[in-house]
Fold this sequence. Notes:
Layout: H1 3-15, E1 21-26, E2 29-34, E3 37-42, H2 45-58, H3 65-85, E4 89-94, E5 97-103, H4 109-113, E6 119-121, H5 125-134
Parallel strand pairs: 3-4
Antiparallel strand pairs: 1-2, 2-3, 4-5, 5-6
Helix pairs in contact: 1-3, 2-5
Amino acid sequence: MDIHSLFRIILIFQNAICCGSVTVSVGEDSFTVTREEIIIDIHDPEKMKKLMDAVSPLLGSREGGMKEKKKMMDEMKLYAEDLASKGKTAIIKYQGREVMRMGAKANSLLMKSFGMKHIEIKYNLNTLRMMKGFM
């Protein structure tokens, strides 16, 4: 199973939610799924990076490291289009503050100019801090 297959499974799970939400927390990091949104709140990018490296081999990837993260970033466009086509939105937060939005409720003229019309990045200090933690 690859990351995109896992993402599609999450979308199917999301359709099963008629009201309310499901939240999974690991320490301060959390993952919340509602009928319309997927909210990922990252408090420790280093821990998230280790989790991504650990999960990659389980999902069929043997590369790991930065190469795998780049591949995941390239696939973000596909995820955003999947979300938008289903009227859903994924929100990524860093320490409780929104840094990125993908899917139906994302709107960014700058990202549209790069061919990514369903991705919105909040250009602020928190975004830079989170990206620094992933590098």
